[in-house]
Design a protein that fits this description.
Helices cover 14% and strands 46% of the residues. The protein is mostly beta strands. It has an eleven-stranded antiparallel beta sheet with strand order 6-5-4-3-2-1-11-10-9-8-7, covered by helices on one side. The longest helix is centred in the N-terminal third of the chain and has 24 residues, at 2-25. It starts with a helix and ends with a helix.
């Protein structure tokens, strides 16, 4: 009986190893992030003119984004708080300190956080250590081009293999150069759903036209993987 047990265990081990090898051999697929995310991020540019940190709430189900940002452009500091409501096609610029609100047209379509179907896989790596369970995170880096108003843009996006959680994005246009966005403190779900509702003092805000505005900038820098 002992030899039979040894043979059975050997076959079982071989089968498990083949299954494990087969799983590893599967190529990563383009993915879509969870429909609701709350996270922090940082943005820097190649020319070092922009350094920013932001809190970001994302709701793909109702097509809403809230971005609260602090940073430096050149030698000047700035603060930006915007609520993008894509279904209503309006953008609120909010000043919570003064209780004022500007309501402007939002002339871009909502794009869910996802790796584009035509993106090319550059690499799959482990961030951290692969020597033990829980010591690293398996991520995929994708690259491609995107057509913008001012021409083609290049991007490289890194997301987790499991869950498609954004890790970082590099975005390049001839106008802005390279922009690097790093994501951290990712939470699946909305930490504070009230952030995606206009404050009461925005109720009477009138829709304003702003000549030459480029609302696609928000998408390029923060809303794309």
């Amino acid at each position: 009986m002992a030899p039979q047990i040894i043979i059975d265990c050997g076959l079982q081990t071989t089968w498990i190893m083949c299954l494990f090898t087969g799983c590893l051999a599967q190529s990563p697929q383009q993915c879509k992030s969870p429909p609701q995310l709350t996270r922090d991020l940082s943005v820097t540019t190649q020319n070092e003119k922009l350094l920013a940190f932001a809190k970001y709430s994302y709701d793909a189900q109702r097509q809403r984004i809230r971005l609260t940002e602090w940073g430096v452009i050149g030698n000047k500091t700035f603060h930006l708080d915007v609520l993008l409501l894509y279904r209503q096609r309006v953008m609120y610029k909010i000043n919570s300190k003064n209780h004022t609100c500007c309501k402007r047209p939002l002339n871009v379509d909502f794009h869910p956080l996802a790796i584009p179907k035509n993106a090319t896989l550059l690499a799959q790596v482990v961030l951290g250590s692969s020597s033990g369970p829980g010591q690293g995170v398996l991520v995929n880096t994708w690259a491609g081009e995107q057509q913008m108003k001012e021409g083609k843009a290049q991007y490289m996006s890194t997301v987790t293999e499991f869950g498609c959680i954004p890790v970082s994005t590099l975005f390049h246009t001839s106008k802005t150069g390279w922009m690097v966005t790093s994501f951290f403190n990712n939470i699946v779900g909305l930490q504070d759903p009230q952030q995606l509702i206009p404050p009461p003092f925005c109720k009477d805000a009138q829709l304003e036209e702003e000549e030459g505005q480029d609302t696609s900038l928000y998408f390029k820098m923060y809303c794309a993987l």
